[in-house]
Specification:
Number of helices of chain A: 0
Number of strands of chain A: 11
Distance between the termini of chain B: 41 Å
Structural class of chain A: mainly beta
Distance between the termini of chain A: 34 Å
Largest sheet of chain B: 6 strands, mixed
Structural class of chain B: mainly beta
Largest sheet of chain A: 7 strands, mixed
Order of helices and strands of chain B: EEEEEEEEEEE
Radius of gyration of chain A: 13 Å
Oligomer: heterodimer
Largest interface: A-B, 23 and 21 residues
Chain lengths: 113, 107
């Protein structure tokens, strides 16, 4: 089944812990993105990557880190430095060569307890 | 950066009614997409429409790039159309999202 897979669907974290959210795509897309959504709000860009081993900060990168060691994978780490990490996190991918339509995974809902 | 404004912020419809959602953006774009976010949070692609008009069943969209706006039309609305509709645009950067229109369709 082609698409973007995010895991886990729900994640609970204690304050002071780092957690890593997984995002995998088998669409052979070049670019991958991480967005954050707070209740009643639109999506805000955290990080994006257009090529393996390279990534750029988005509008709200503080307290987050990413890696892009493989084309298919773009994990997001929410560090203890992120002041308000409780949110819904969405991963997306797009093909740079075939137009820029983006497709999204099903999201991970992170709650700090 | 590009600014995206969606209107109205909230919309309540009786089942069977028609509606028009608007998206205004502040700069020229290479990409414009409409999404429907379902109650479980998943973003469903509705249209990729940087310019022109497209139709898919009861939904259609028009983008007038020179005037920097896009319209999403929903005809004969059904309760399953409820949710949040997002417009997102990009120039040479990742998608920038509006705050969405929350649609509630009542039986």
């Amino acid at each position: 089944d082609g698409g973007i897979t995010q895991s886990p669907k729900y994640l609970f974290r204690k304050e002071g812990q780092n957690v890593t959210l997984s995002c995998e795509q088998n669409l052979n897309h070049d670019a991958m993105y991480w967005y954050r959504q707070d209740p009643g709000q639109g999506l805000r860009l955290i990080y994006y990557s257009q090529i393996v081993n390279d990534f750029q900060k988005g509008d709200i990168a503080e307290g987050y880190s990413v890696s892009r060691e493989k084309k298919e994978s773009f994990p997001l780490t929410v560090t203890s430095a992120q002041k308000n990490p409780t949110a819904f996190y969405l991963c997306a991918s797009s093909s740079l060569s075939k137009g820029t339509e983006a497709f999204f995974g099903q999201g991970t809902r992170l709650t700090v307890v | 950066g590009i600014q995206v404004e969606q209107s109205p912020p909230d919309l309540i419809l009786q089942e069977g009614a028609n509606s028009t959602l608007r998206c205004n953006f502040s700069d020229s774009v290479n990409n414009l997409q409409w999404f429907h976010q379902n109650p479980w949070g998943q973003l469903i692609n509705l249209f990729y429409i940087p310019s022109g008009t497209k139709q898919n069943g009861r939904l259609s969209a028009t983008t007038v790039a020179t005037e920097r706006y896009s319209l999403l039309y929903i005809s004969s609305s059904q309760t399953t159309d409820s949710g949040v509709y997002f417009c997102a645009v990009s120039g040479n950067t990742p998608l920038v999202f509006g705050k969405g229109t929350r649609l509630s369709v009542i039986a």
